[in-house]
Amino acid sequence: MTKRAAGTDHRVRVVVVRFVLIASLVAAGLKLVQVQGFEAEALAARAEKQRRETLPIPATRGSIVDRNGVELAFSVEVKALAYRPVAQRKLLADEAAKPQAKNVVTFDEETASIASDMARILGTRVSEQDLLAKLRSEDKFTYLDTEVEPAKARELVKLHPSLNVEDRAKREYPGGSLAANVLGFANWRTDDPDPKKHSLHGLFGLESLRDNQLAGTPGSQKVETASGTDVVIAGSGTNLQPAVDGTDIELTIDADLQYFVQQKAAEYGRRSQAKSVSVVVMDAKTGEVYALANDKTFDPNAPGGLDAKLLNDRTVTTPYEPGSVNKIVTAMGAIEYGVTTPEAVHSVPGSIQVADRRVDDAWPHGRINLTTTGIFAKSSNVGTLMLADEVGQDRFAALLDKLGIGKRTGVGLPGESPGKLLPRNQWSGSTFGNLPIGQGLSMTVLQMAGMYQTIANDGVRVPPRILRAKIAPDGTRIEEPRPEAVRVVSPETARTTRDMLRAVVQKGTNGNSGTAPAAALTGYQISGKTGTAQQYDQAAGRYSDSKYWITFAGIVPADSPRFVVGMVYDTPAYSTPDGHSAAPFFHDVASFLTQRYSIPLSSAPAPVVPLVEP
Question: How many other C-beta atoms lie within 10 A of the C-beta of residue 614?
Fold first, then answer.
């Protein structure tokens, strides 16, 4: 090759290289113009979105307190600790594979250290073996513990920055099973795929029914995170939307009374061997519920794996046939409509024919002379039906309606049953042989107590309620609306009926004792009524001769009513002394009430009145 040709090739190569460089610079310049000019805003927004995140600010769930401000349910701050096994395993493996890597912790070493430290710091709450299984799983994300005290969570994260931390709240029930059937329970709900939307919500009872008020409204805040991490840059928070804390709810329940009644219900449940025992205590004037208890309940601090039957509040969800406590309807009607007077004497046979059925008294007797008071004090079915016939079916039906039978009380609890009562136009000839003696209809123990609240309140029924007030986060107190009262009978009728029922607990001679002397309380006049109702046997298609509901409803004190107590046993064992009557249970509750509320002694003992005439 000539010298000239070689020089030409060199110049060509230089020109090509220059052209390539110029082309690259032009392309880069055009890209820069595109990025900084046409796409600058969009790219900046995308980068901003990658760096900024909206974090929820949880609202504090409202507390539930009793009528004296005692906390029955409240929330505390906790932390959830989580781990990303798949990502962390890869991250540590990649770090170890780098040429310059020195003393890199392995995945097995890190997970072993985390498990050991968590078991040491959290104690018996967690098992080191269980933690290792979670940490070394093939999960992308796993919770290690969801109820860690904030201080312990900070200690663990300081030791192990690879742990993820979430803000949570835990619902505490300091009384354990105290009023559990009323309160229900709340728990941290994780059914939303977005962890930021997980929150504390009511799952049962009042916690569920009043969830919207208790939960409050979460807030939010936009923060900036470090590139490629979830770490929030301090001081980067903007656009703060504060959370609105939940409302506190004040109940009419008295925690001390509730505790006593629950313990007694459990005691008498064991003693009577009943399937269940339920009891209600109401204010005689206002209808406020001071206690609602069942013999079997649960601890909302540990509701997992519970029998669903234990969650129901049987006092409002489970109706039964009341038996003779329903005779109060005939007693009121007979006095209100002038059918009889307390002292009037009636010739009562041992049985009576009503349509196609014969009704007997609970004890065998020939024709006897009973006063009106005696008919109810000795719980004569025959005498009651004789008086009910004179009251008449239409007036009897009207009284049941005014007493709220067959309708929900609106007490403010979930799952309330209205009970069962046939409409008046569906009554057959034998219906009126059942209803006056408490068969052929059903009611809850709360409805039953409401009938006796009517005569305790001089003839005015005040529907029961369990919610007393709401207390806003700023302390503003909002009283719950009082239910509309219903005039059922005149004040004179109510007082006369109440006085007649004092004889139920009297102890006399020559057959002049009532059915429940065991309910009497020294120093106080007591009005009440016993009940024994046969349970309907579906398989046999008739009423059972061996399965009963045992009921009692009472007023303390009768001369100046303060409280009404209603209780029911489901299928107690008649072979036990406590399987025949709920009167001893009432006595214990009445005794506690008079002491706790310093109820003055009655001005005079109730007179012993004649029940049986020669």
Answer: 6
Residue 52 three-state SS:
strand
Cβ neighbours for 456, distance < 8 A, ≥ 6 positions apart: 284, 285, 494, 498, 527, 555, 561, 564
Alpha carbon 603 to its chain's center: 40
pLDDT category at 231 given cuts 50, 70, 90 is: very low
What is the pLDDT confidence band of residue 356, given thresholds at 50, 70 and 90? Answer: confident
Q: Are 195 and 166 in contact (CB under 8 A)?
A: yes
Distance, in Å, from the CA atom of 330 to the CA atom of 400, rounded to the nearest integer, reads 10
Q: Is the pLDDT of residue 36 over 60?
A: no
Check residue 123 and give left, alpha or beta (phi > 0: left; psi -120 to 50: alpha). left
> What are φ and ψ of residue 418, in 5° steps?
-80, -5
Please say whether the beta carbons of 587 and 351 come within 8 A. no
H or E element, residue 180: helix 180-183
Residue type, 359: V
Cα distance between residue 500 and residue 482, in whole Å: 30
**Beta-bridge mates of residue 138:** none
Three-state SS letters, 312-328: CCHHHHCCECCHHHHHH
Using DSSP's 3-state secondary structure scheme, residue 446 falls into helix
Domains of the chain are 54-84+141-251 (3.90.1310.10), 255-297+315-613 (3.40.710.10)
Instruction: Tell me the three state secondary structure of residue 293.
Output: strand
How far apart CA 181 and CA 93 sit, in angstroms, is 53
| Between 267 and 6, the higher pLDDT residue | 267
The closest alpha carbon to 354, from 398, 389, 324, belongs to: 389
Record the pTM. 0.86
Rounded CA-CA distance 612/614 in Å is 7
Query: Which residues are the active-site residues?
Result: 324
545 burial via Cβ count (<10 Å: 0-12, 13-18, 19+): exposed
pLDDT tens for residues 505-552? 999 999 999 999 999 999 999 999 999 999 988 888 888 988 999 999
387 CB burial (10 A radius; 0-12, 13-18, 19+): buried
Higher pLDDT, 256 or 28: 256
The answer to whether the beta carbons of residues 301 and 404 sit under 8 Å apart is no
Reference 369, options 345, 340, 342, 387; nearest CA is 345
Residue bearing tokens 């046979």: 349
Q: How many CB atoms lie within 10 A of CB 534?
A: 17
H or E element, residue 251: strand 248-251
Helices (H), 197-326: 205-209, 211-215, 255-272, 308-311, 314-317
44-62 pLDDT, tens digit each? 555 555 556 676 777 899 9
Q: Quick count: other Cβ atoms within 10 Å of Cβ 395?
A: 14
Q: Name the more confident of 186 and 100.
A: 186
